[in-house]
Protein 1
Amino acid sequence: MMMMGGNDYAGWFQLAGKGAAIQTFWGYHNGPHLAPQLKRIGRQNVFVSSGIPCGGIDGGVEPMNASQAMSYIDTELAQLDTNYVDLLLLHHRCETEAETQKVWGAMEAAKQAGKTKHIGVSNFNAHDMGTLSSVAQEPIEVNEAHFGIGTMDFEALAYMREHSIVPVSFSSLSGGWDHPAIADVAASHQITVQQAMYAYVNNWNISVLSAYDPRHPEYTIQDLKIFNITLSTQEMKALDQVQLGKRTCTDCFTDECEACAGTLLQLGCPMGMPMPVWGRDNKNATQCMECAALAKNKAAVLQACGGTSGGETLETMVPKACGA
């Protein structure tokens, strides 16, 4: 499956036909812009995925509760001028597990009321999914996260396979374009580097989320060709090994990661981005991780980045905060 992010989808609807899938979120505040596009093509002809915040990073209130979550859902439906979405996601875990459970309860109620056909999460690692699943009445159907070459959460993917949760990628083209392993695969198959990066995600059986640019419809035509590209076991293994350190699903969205990143900045480690950091696209990621490992920085890094909760460890937090 391929989904599209963006704002203007006329070209995408023409290319993909009935069932064209688009992705938005409450936090994008573009529902009123998308509504007339959905009306023109016919709401029944589009697979609409949207999502709500769980407080904090994308403008949601804190602390979160079920009533606030339902308010976000109803507002998003009203702005999209539809009475349902096909997939409703929780953009990231809440500040506490109790809040996450309350918001998930509202999403379950929305599904039961016909406001969404499917519900899922975004940026959840294996610990987050396991914790929520232990109390959920409705199963987690999707987990959308930052999957791509160098940013794979292999533990989360194993959990999702075991529990029939569909993985969806975002930002799979971030970073790593100049890595020789990617260039080698692209040259071998006579494809672009971008196609090689998307093909890797697809060969992992992860649905690809791209972005539609009406100024360059040829990019999307290239994207669609990835479904004809089969990478060998050796090629997949080489691309798996591009990763620096261990990653978990979330980007640097959590308070714990932001605290770690802030400490690294204070220590003079080359973050390549201002606060808040996003945990991606740092060209100096290797140097940042080397800086974090220096003996003189050990105590401060351990205090800020180690012993974290939510399934994170020092081993996962530093690469994420460094944008590796």
Protein 2
Amino acid sequence: MTDKVVVGLDQNQELEADIVKLCYTNNEVNVLNYMEEGYSKDDIIELVDNDTFTDFVENYTFKLHCTHLDPYTDKEDIHEEFPGYMMLTGIQPLKYEKNIEKFFCCQNLSLGYHRDYLLDKLWDADLFKDGYISYWQAKQGDDDDNLYAKYLNDIKNKTLHRKWQDQIYKWFDYEEYEDRLVYDYWDNPPPPHKTWNATVFNIVTESYFDVPTHNTKYLSEKTYSCLFQAQPFVLVGCQHQHKYLQDAGFLLYDDVFDYSFDALPTIEQRIDALVDQIKNLNNTWALQKRLEERAFKNQEIIFKKIQNMELPDILFSNEHRFLPYAKKHRDDIFYAKTFVDKYV
């Protein structure tokens, strides 16, 4: 065996080739899809359930390319991370045409205790009238949906009234978007430009909210889309998540928001403090302009970050044989990387 092969996922998110057969005919097998979170070695071995594949993985001749690891999954030799990929999933053509109708936008897809709690508090503060708020309350998978399992555990013994349940949008349409820049329509959707342009800022709920401080770097397209589209935003997520954004070189909207809430130890405390702030903000032209000015500076920063981004070596390899879907994924990454150049 002398071959090195790279296999991707097809349109049904299934491997495009038999992974076990590839182990017989290749001395290195790579799975390239840059899924949002990588799986542990034991999880992959259990999923495939084949002795040949197990030996292949144990001998370090199998590589799983992922964006980052689940906050609860330790890094192993099989993992090849590319965290910058999340920036690429936030790219869409720019459409900045502000016509303010509401103060804020808060769009939510998958179930999360912090999302339930946030909406409870926005309801209690009589802020639903001031925002475009949606919540699909979706499961992302079946029995393997870790976030849904976490949700069921998180809401145990919690007091949530959900009085907003029948008074809420399910989802805001995406309108126009460039299909080639959407890698996973369900999990990484394009921004709903019309809704965003009708609001002053976004309340972004990231998926994780209670992991240790060193895991707060797991930002998704929900945040990066706002940076790219010059949409001001505030995060509901892990402790110190705004500090991470600042450490990464982005500017906070600290002339509008008091980010001291970012250091509070519990998600309930952070949400309570944030909602109190939003309730006491006045939606004035001056406030909108302050947010807008900082948003355009952040847009310039992310433009340059993407332009100067280093791509993984395997994407340029002449030693590896890319199967069709892996090749398409590689080519789409190159396309997204160069797409931003016209804006810089």
Protein 3
Amino acid sequence: MGALDSFFILKSLSLYQFGVYQLFLSGYATLSDFFHDVFAEVAGNDLQRFVGEDKEAAAKKLFLEYAAFRMIMGVIPWAIVMAGASLFSDRYGPDAILWARILSFLFLIDAAMNVSLLLLKLRLEFRLLALLPTVEKIIQFILLGYFFFFSHLGIREIFAAQVVSSLLILFLTAPWLARAFRPWRIIAARRGMMLPAIVRSYGKWALPRSLLTDFNGRVRPWIIKLFLSTEAGGVFGVAYTFISLVKDLLPTRTLTMLVPRKVHDKPYKDFLFVYGTKYYLLLSIILSTCAAVAVPAAVFVT
């Protein structure tokens, strides 16, 4: 579905426009990494551990604290982009103000969606977690197709399709979220703040990793633009789209959801880790080999 979405986008935008589109996405992703991913892994690991140890009161308290923290961290970049959107008009014209402001709503929607996914992962809703990205891409594909065939598909419409599809997915998950939260309704949350203590103990070491791991990849389009051109950034964006499509096929999040739940059960934890790593490596080799043949062929055909 991501490939089909990319077809409409690549067919509708010039190389320069696609380069601008990639620059805006890169800027959004950089801010999103900085504000959204802070302590996400730390909170997720401790939540899984608490549930695995049947400490539901502690899990509820940590979830509510982290949900509030995550929403605040979504409002900050939204406000920054909304207030500073006019700065983009000097380089990319007056339309860039609207592009930036439409894209800014993804900070709020993503914050709410990330909290929702955290709860669904906690309840091991693997079927729903597997379906959501595909359904979102299908909705986005329908919207892009409508603009492509019956209207005009530009950067504004592409960002609007991304925002609307994400918002619809958030509403569609509401019944499952209510069911996932149901076990906590009769449980009183543990007293006292938990997240600050977790951050002070070992969470602080996750901060440099969450901020710097993908920083190089996020700013690369801007470096390409600075030293080469916006069009070169567009070429890079096309190549990176193929890489992302292959990477998204790998089930990288399964172990992070399962291992913390069994940290108190060493034999089963070791079983999950050893066999999970083995089959993940095998799947990676198979996908990489297939991609090495299929991607050049796709580029040649197009």
